[in-house]
């Protein structure tokens, strides 16, 4: 049994799914935290009661006090409100910004050495706010979006081509929103890049464009179906893949919302780029050569993240 501690800030749909998966995978002791009394305790107990059936030995606790996350190795933050139909991720900004300030203070005090994965939306602005509020090093605070966006793209492609998801790779850059940039040139079926498959007439450019658009709208599609909240199964596994890479020093190269300090011509902002996650956190950001069309799309996406961060700075000038 691993001696790691995984703290989940927010014990809602994603937090509960994360707790269940972390326990099944025996990643370590799981601490569920939430502001609502009883929910983290109830979910911790419910999942613990499933352990005799599944045969795992993970310890789970629920808490309403930040002291419970003390010494956490990984913290995954889903605290805040999710989208309802008709809302964009950006509509959540004001409420979730306040939540990030509280969570940041808790991290600073009780888990300053943790690797922190932010999931709360609007993602690229909230991960910026969380890092700023917590004061943790940039390489230890990262946002989960690209793994999920790429997973959606991969799933849609596997359906289209009627091939195993295992043989589909995809890369998505930019912010987690309508301006995200699914990179078809770096997405493959069995190693064959998508533009080549268009040339081979396996798919038309028009159909590929439709799949790219469905990927961009992937979150809204689920919100439209669920009506009372947003996606949680795929976001949870995506965040956990990043946590595992850190805990096990796997050095997986995953698209993450990482802090950019000049890479891609961006300084002082978080945006979705491929990065290697090791025991150090973000080990390195991978800088790709982009075509001028891709550069334009990436810039548009980064500009929209910049706008959100500026809105955060107006609401909370003390944040930096
Ligand atoms: N501190 C801790 N927890 C909080 C706080 C806070 N200040 N404010 C709200 N929460 C808790 C809520 O009580 C709730 O249990 O955060 C949890 C959020 O859970 P859900 O509403 O079920 O939302 P979920 O689907 O898990 O999504 C969480 O991730 O993908 C994003 O857009 C999504 O921002 C949303 C977040």
UniProtKB/TrEMBL annotation:
Kindly state which reaction or reactions the protein catalyses.
(S)-malate + NAD(+) = oxaloacetate + NADH + H(+)
InterPro entries per the record?
Answer: L-lactate/malate_DH, Lactate/malate_DH_C, Lactate/malate_DH_N, Lactate_DH/Glyco_Ohase_4_C, Malate_DH_type3, NAD(P)-bd_dom_sf
EC numbers listed for it are 1.1.1.37
Q: Which UniProt keywords apply?
A: NAD, Oxidoreductase, Tricarboxylic acid cycle
Ranges for domain Lactate/malate dehydrogenase C-terminal: 148-307
Span of domain Lactate/malate dehydrogenase N-terminal: 5-143
Name the GO terms of the biological process aspect.
lactate metabolic process; tricarboxylic acid cycle
Offer one Pfam family short name for this entry. Answer: Ldh_1_C
**Residues that coordinate or bind substrate:** 83, 89, 121, 152
The domain of life for this entry's organism is Bacteria
Q: Where is the active site?
A: 176
State the family it belongs to.
Answer: Belongs to the LDH/MDH superfamily. MDH type 3 family.
Q: How is this protein named in the record?
A: Malate dehydrogenase
Q: Which organism is it from?
A: Methyloligella halotolerans
Q: Which gene encodes it?
A: mdh
């Amino acid at each position: 049994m691993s001696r790691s501690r995984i703290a989940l800030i927010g014990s809602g749909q994603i937090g509960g799914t994360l707790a269940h998966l972390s326990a099944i995978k025996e990643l370590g002791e799981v601490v569920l935290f939430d502001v609502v009394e009883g929910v983290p305790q109830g979910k911790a107990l419910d999942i613990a009661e499933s352990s005799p059936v599944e045969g795992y030995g993970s310890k789970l606790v629920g808490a309403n006090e930040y002291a419970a996350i003390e010494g956490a190795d990984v913290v995954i933050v889903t605290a805040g409100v999710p989208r309802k139909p008709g809302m964009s991720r950006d509509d959540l900004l004001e409420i979730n910004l306040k939540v990030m300030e509280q969570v940041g203070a808790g991290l600073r005090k009780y888990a300053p050495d943790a690797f922190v994965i932010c999931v709360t939306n609007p993602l690229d602005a909230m991960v910026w706010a969380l890092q700023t509020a917590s004061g943790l090093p940039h390489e230890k605070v990262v946002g989960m979006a690209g793994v999920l966006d790429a997973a959606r793209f991969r799933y849609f492609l596997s359906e289209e081509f009627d091939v195993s998801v295992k043989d589909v790779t995809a890369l998505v850059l930019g912010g987690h929103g309508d301006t995200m940039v699914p990179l078809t040139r770096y997405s493959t079926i069995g190693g064959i890049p998508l533009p080549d498959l268009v040339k081979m007439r396996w798919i038309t450019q028009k159909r590929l464009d439709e799949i790219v658009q469905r990927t961009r709208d992937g979150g809204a599609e689920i919100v439209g179906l669920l009506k009372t909240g947003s996606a949680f199964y795929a976001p949870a596994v995506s965040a956990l893949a990043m946590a595992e890479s850190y805990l096990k020093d796997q050095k997986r190269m995953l698209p993450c919302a990482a802090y950019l300090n000049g890479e891609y011509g961006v300084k002082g902002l978080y945006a979705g780029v491929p990065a290697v996650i090791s025991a150090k956190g973000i080990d390195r950001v991978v800088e790709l050569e982009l075509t001028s069309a891709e550069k334009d799309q990436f810039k548009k996406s980064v500009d929209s993240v910049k706008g959100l961060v500026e809105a955060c700075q107006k609401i909370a000038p003390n944040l930096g």
